[in-house]
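Q: I'm writing a short explainer about tRNA threonylcarbamoyladenosine biosynthesis protein TsaE for a general audience and would like to include a description of its predicted shape. Could you first generate the structure from this sequence?
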Amino acid sequence: MYTLITHSAAETQAVAEKLATLVTAGTVITLNGDLGAGKTTFTQGFGKGLGVKRNVNSPTFTIMKQYQGRLPLYHMDVYRLEDTGDDIGLEEYINGDGVAIVEWSNLIESSLPAERLAITIERVGDEERRLTFEPVGQKYETIVKEVLA
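A: Of course. Here's the predicted structure. Afterward I'll give you a sentence or two in plain language.
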């Protein structure tokens, strides 16, 4: 596990933006944290790093939003799903040609691939966030080391 403290929303987005420049098709990133922790803020920076031109916002009521950049971005919020990701065909997006970012992934743990980058975002102050990166698999280990370099 690796931990990083950011001191503003812009700094959180900059970390995510750098991460986006390092990913390839089939990348799966899970985001967990309390309401208001910064999951969508993180994803906005990630979208910018992928070259997404549209405004990235929370897919809370639609479950998933798709954006086009260097790679397709599948932004999912599974907070309202019951037990599995089968309801939205999660496997299709995880094994697809883009990058899947799954918010509230702890709710569908059994539907997630074994190898992924798990990120937990915690508020440690008004603007400060603790980002904890837990890479599972060599690909993700390499990416995280590059992001934090």
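A: For your explainer, you could say: The mean pLDDT is 87.
Q: Perfect, that's easy to follow.
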